[in-house]
Design goal:
The protein contains 13 helices and 6 strands. α4 runs antiparallel to α5. The chain has helices at 5-10, 13-27, 35-51, 59-84, 90-102, 126-152, 191-201, 205-210, 212-216, 262-268, 278-290, 303-315, 319-326; strands at 109-110, 115-116, 163-166, 179-180, 183-184, 293-296.
């Protein structure tokens, strides 16, 4: 492989983002220290490349700084804004901001067969290519999910955005319930919040399902524990269960001022439990204690399509530009 030294240095992003995607799928937690070395490499490579374009004597030199400006002054604020408004998770935004520093312009890798990436845009901002690739990969996922559910016989209103999951597996899952006591909902209980509640009560999901009437009584809460942040790897949640859910009286909650001690839990913890309200927690607990399977959002973090978008960008190039060019509009 022949390439500029700075472009070879930037390839450190591939294993780093691959590890980040794997870890985020497993735990939904990424350490902030992951981004610092990548930013150092990005700033160093950018300074070296910028030195090669000073003074700005040619059009190529000026284009380099325009592309760097677009990457840093558009993509970085865009990623931050999407995080601020809740469109991205913190790790997703940090990944995009880091890539904006690492890949402001197109790298070039010469192999025996060809020069890669194969398809470059006219604008030439590589970080934007990574982003558009990630969006296209992300859009394809609901189609895959719908086909997968159809082939499994799981057809419903949410088959393109959710998957049916065994309740017994929830302690090791991520995502949000698409169900409450009334039917389908877009605002169901977050599974991380469920883990926080179970740890706070010092109980497990199997125990909850075995005796829901007792657990619904707020007086049954004695000593409470550390709810943690709901991460999967922060304790033993008792994944397996052979208990069958009990039949519950729909009006049973009316017998208590604070069914399931939901208000006490949310008042007792620091901060919020992923936007959970007492009513949402109670509805979620009713669902997980009365059903064998539930519809769950897939909870795939955006950093996964970002990683895939990076790999495609480094090999093929810009998916959207290639498509538009094939259609004759680019």
């Amino acid at each position: 492989m022949l390439a500029a030294t700075t472009d070879l240095l930037r390839l450190i992003a591939v294993p780093a983002l691959g590890w980040a995607a794997w870890r985020d799928v497993r735990t939904r937690r990424l350490p902030n220290r992951l981004w610092y070395p990548l930013l150092v490499v990005g700033v160093f490579a950018l300074l070296v490349d910028a030195g090669g374009h000073l003074p700005m004597a040619t059009v190529v030199d000026r284009l380099f700084f325009v592309r760097v400006g677009v990457s840093l002054l558009i993509l970085v604020p865009l990623a931050y804004g999407l995080w601020w408004f809740g469109g991205f998770g913190g790790a997703d935004a940090k990944a995009l901001m880091t890539l904006a520093v690492l890949f402001p312009t197109y790298p070039v890798f010469y192999l025996a067969t060809d020069a890669y990436p194969l398809v470059a845009t006219t604008l030439g901002v590589f970080s934007l290519t990574i982003l558009t690739n990630a969006v296209l990969v992300g859009v394809a996922y609901p189609l895959y999910l719908g086909v997968r559910n159809a082939l499994r016989g799981d057809r419903s209103l949410v088959m393109f955005v959710g998957r049916r999951t065994d309740v017994a597996a929830l302690p090791r899952e991520h995502g949000r319930l698409f169900e409450d006591g009334e039917g389908f909902t877009r605002h169901g209980l977050d599974i991380d919040a469920l883990r926080m509640y179970l740890r706070w009560r010092g109980t497990t999901l199997p125990a909850l399902r075995a005796a829901p009437e007792r657990h619904r009584d707020p007086e049954s809460v004695d000593e409470t524990g550390d709810p943690t942040d709901g991460a999967v790897d922060a304790g033993d949640d008792g994944r397996s269960t052979d208990q069958t859910p009990a039949d519950l009286d729909a009006d049973f909650d009316a017998d208590f001022d604070d069914p399931w001690a939901a208000e006490r839990f949310l008042d007792d913890i620091e901060g919020s439990a992923y936007g959970t309200t007492p009513e949402k927690l109670r509805e979620g607990l009713r669902v997980v204690t009365t059903r064998e399977t539930v519809w769950l959002s897939p909870g795939v973090p955006f950093i996964v399509p970002v990683f895939l978008g990076l790999v495609v960008a480094l090999t093929y190039g810009d998916l959207l530009f290639g498509l538009l060019r094939a259609l004759g509009v680019a």
